Amino acid sequence: MGEVAQSSGKSYWGLVLLLVVFGFITGFSIGIPFLLVGVALAGLSPLRSRPRFFWSGLALVVGFLVGYVLVAPFSCTVTAGFDLTTGVETVSPEMCRSLTGIEYTGSPRTAGLITGGVLAVVGAAAGWIAGGRQSQANPQSPS
Fold it and tell me: Looking at the structure, do residues 3 and 37 belong to the same domain, yes or no?
C-alpha cells in the first residue's frame, strides 16, 4: 500500500508542477487559470486525506474561475470620431462583450467578480457535499 501512496503523491505533485509551469509560461494569454488551480492544489495538499475540505477548497477556486471567465469582459471596443466642421472629438463609451454574449458599458469588471464569487460559493458547497459522500464511502479517511 505504501508504493501506491508514494506513486499517487508523485503524480499529484507532477500535476501541480505541470499546472504551475504551464500557467506561468502562458500567463499573458490563457495561463492564469491554470496557474491558480496549480497553486490551489499545492495549498490544499495537506488536506488531501480530508476529502470534504479538499474538494470544497478546489471547487471554490474552480467555481470562481468559471464564473469570472464566462461573465467578465472578453473584448472591448471604443469608437472615436472627429467632426471637421466643429473641431470636436467624440468618443463613445467603452462597450464590452463577455464569452457568453453579455454586453456591458462603463465599468463591467464587477459583474465577473460577483458571478465568480457566487459560483465559488456554489462550488464550495457542492464540493463539501461530494467530499462528505466520499468520506462516507471510504470510512478510513477522516472528514
Answer: yes
* DSSP notation for 79-110: -EEEETTTTEEEEPPPEEEETT--EEES-THH
Contact 32, 20 (CB under 8 A): no
Residues 13 and 69 placed together within one structural domain of the fold: no
CB distance 48 to 78 below 8 Å: no
30 and 94 housed in the same domain: no
Q: CA-to-CA distance for 138 and 54, rounded, in angstroms? A: 15
43-93 pLDDT, tens per residue?
Answer: 999 988 888 899 999 999 999 999 988 888 888 888 888 878 887 888 878
- Whole-structure pTM value: 0.73
Same domain (yes/no): 131, 88: yes
Half-sphere exposure of 116 (CA within 13 A, CB side): 17
- Classified as helix, coil or strand, 18 is helix
Given 3-state DSSP classes, what are the helix, strand and coil percentages for the chain, each rounded to the nearest 5? 65, 15, 20
Same domain for 43 and 54: no
